[in-house]
């Protein structure tokens, strides 16, 4: 692996060890456990178990995330200003996980014990505990985005972070998606308190284990010498300056749109209620279709993870994101066509894998497997790709202004993540209300007229629109692979100048661009 050197002869690239690249992304797995545990089920829990109005349980998810817009920049500022005995990121990872564990445990295990005669208390605790959980989620999830900046700035390694990040996501999110239907079949449906009494503790344990692994992964890198170009002497940025910083950071603006598009596609298409309607209400075999199709999607995603890394290393992360989002978009045209052709009383136009006599697969199912499998594999491999790109935007901000503010970059992206994922719950609930359902669909919900069109919009149309928005946003994204190499070289040259006694302002003037670094090296 070659290193770019600057005039002082110091290495410009901060490399990570393989175990660090593999373990730190488990932080994303830890938070994705809660992405499923809370965001996929909290509306079902509030409506089906606590008896809260469906409109309240679903819309409150979005409202609380809008309120969280106030706390996100504050937490980002806390991360940027933290530099204690245990580093900048580790304290927020651990504290955030403990906050989420406590709030979810009380919410899922103890609020159902409140008697029906005290419904007001159920409403109050639902809102309060959900808000506390959101704070913990922000603490930990923002570290996944911001912590990358200290882990590595190697343009060859950052795409590898996408792979390990997705592995971490699979371990966390995949474990919950795999366990949930098994728990449901043994203890009760998604709208029963027994289901959450089992799922919640399991999820908490998995998340804690992944958090410990992530802390080990970043331990060695979580120290001042990796904090930007000025280390611990970096100027502290006021919260009031953050708006101006983001206003000037055009790549970050575009990445937020792209990230929102990718996240919205994933959040809606994998929503439990949507999948219950598709595999249960429409196709009539939730237990026989959900797990096989989920496994199928993961199997198809493996080659795409490898392809995205290769493309990112060769052409940059922007090129990789654009390429495979296009693949997903094209494949989902086929999925859309199949969904439109679905006929409730015609077995030839229904999904079918196994029957009483064994394998009952038909042409409709084969085509669905191809289009859905390739499309899901492509978009799942890109869903978390904007995360390592946040580190590029943070490095660009250091290049542009000299400021090292990974915390605010991470929380801004975390805010988009949360707003979009919570918006997905409200969108699903509103769409379901159009066909007259008073409660969110579960696996055993019977088919209602018009439900197929709701599924078509939620499972196909909205994700496709989101991918189109992603491609439009990426069109003007300037942080290509070649540009990032220049940025890292300039930042390293400035860091060397500061180490030799120059102030930040003097170093910025000495090396304003790559041409000045090259001139100084002659």
Automatic annotation (TrEMBL):
Q: Can you supply one Gene Ontology CC term for this chain's record?
A: plasma membrane
The Gene Ontology terms for molecular function here are:
symporter activity
Q: Does the keyword Amino-acid biosynthesis apply?
A: no
| PANTHER family recorded | MAJOR FACILITATOR SUPERFAMILY (MFS) PROFILE DOMAIN-CONTAINING PROTEIN, MAJOR FACILITATOR SUPERFAMILY DOMAIN-CONTAINING PROTEIN
Q: Which UniProt keywords apply?
A: Membrane, Transmembrane, Transmembrane helix
Give the transmembrane region(s).
33-56, 92-114, 120-139, 160-183, 195-219, 255-282, 288-309, 321-341, 361-379, 419-441, 453-474
Q: What Pfam families has UniProt attached to this entry?
A: MFS_2
Listed SUPFAM superfamilies: MFS general substrate transporter
Please give the biological process terms from Gene Ontology that the record holds. carbohydrate transport
Native organism is Murimonas intestini
Source organism, top-level taxon:
Bacteria
Q: Which InterPro entries match?
A: MFS_2, MFS_trans_sf
According to UniProt, the name of this protein is Na+/melibiose symporter-like transporter
């Amino acid at each position: 692996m070659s290193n770019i050197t600057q005039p002082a002869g110091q290495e410009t690239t901060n490399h990570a060890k393989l175990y660090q690249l593999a373990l730190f992304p488990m932080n994303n797995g830890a938070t994705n456990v809660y992405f499923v545990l809370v965001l996929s089920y909290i509306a079902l829990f509030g409506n089906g178990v606590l008896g809260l109005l469906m409109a309240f349980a679903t819309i409150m998810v979005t409202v609380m995330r809008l309120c969280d817009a106030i706390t996100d920049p504050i937490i980002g500022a806390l991360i940027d200003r933290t530099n204690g005995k245990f580093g900048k990121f580790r304290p927020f990872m651990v504290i955030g996980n403990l906050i989420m564990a406590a709030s979810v445990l009380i919410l899922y295990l103890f609020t159902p014990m409140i008697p029906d005669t005290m419904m007001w208390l159920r409403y109050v605790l639902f809102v309060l505990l959900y808000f506390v959980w959101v704070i913990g989620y922000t603490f930990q999830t923002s570290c996944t985005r911001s912590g990358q900046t200290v882990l590595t700035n190697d343009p060859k390694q950052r795409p590898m972070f996408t792979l390990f990040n997705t592995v971490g996501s699979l371990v966390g999110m995949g474990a919950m998606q795999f366990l949930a239907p098994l728990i449901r079949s043994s203890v009760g449906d998604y709208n029963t308190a027994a289901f959450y009494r089992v799922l919640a503790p399991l999820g908490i344990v998995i998340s804690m284990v992944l958090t410990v692994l992530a802390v080990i992964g970043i331990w060695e890198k979580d120290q001042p010498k990796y904090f930007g170009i000025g280390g611990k002497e970096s100027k502290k940025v006021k919260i009031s300056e953050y708006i101006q910083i983001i206003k000037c950071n055009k790549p970050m603006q575009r990445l937020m749109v792209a990230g929102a598009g990718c996240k919205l596609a994933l959040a809606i298409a994998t929503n439990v209620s949507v999948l219950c309607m598709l595999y249960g209400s429409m196709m009539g075999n939730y237990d026989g279709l959900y797990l096989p199709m989920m496994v199928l999607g993961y199997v198809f995603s493996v080659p795409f993870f490898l392809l995205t890394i290769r493309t990112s290393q060769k052409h940059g992360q922007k090129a990789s994101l654009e390429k495979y989002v296009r693949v997903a978009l094209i494949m989902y045209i086929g999925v859309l066509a199949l969904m439109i052709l679905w006929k409730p009383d015609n077995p030839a136009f229904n999904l079918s894998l196994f029957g009483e006599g064994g394998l009952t697969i038909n042409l409709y199912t084969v085509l669905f497997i191809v289009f859905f499998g390739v499309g899901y594999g492509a978009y799942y491999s890109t869903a978390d790709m904007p995360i390592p790109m946040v580190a590029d935007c943070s490095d660009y901000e250091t290049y542009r202004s000299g400021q090292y503010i990974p915390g605010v970059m991470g929380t801004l992206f975390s805010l988009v993540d949360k707003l979009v994922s919570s918006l997905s719950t409200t969108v699903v609930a509103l769409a379901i209300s159009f066909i007259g359902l008073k409660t969110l669909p579960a696996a055993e919900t019977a088919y209602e007229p018009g439900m197929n069109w709701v599924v078509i919009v939620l499972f196909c149309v909205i994700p496709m629109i989101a991918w189109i928005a992603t491609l439009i946003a990426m069109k003007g994204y300037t942080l290509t692979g070649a540009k990032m190499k220049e940025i890292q070289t300039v930042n390293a040259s400035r860091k060397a100048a500061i180490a030799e006694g120059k102030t930040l302002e003097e170093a910025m003037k000495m090396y304003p661009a790559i041409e000045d670094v090259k001139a100084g090296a002659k």
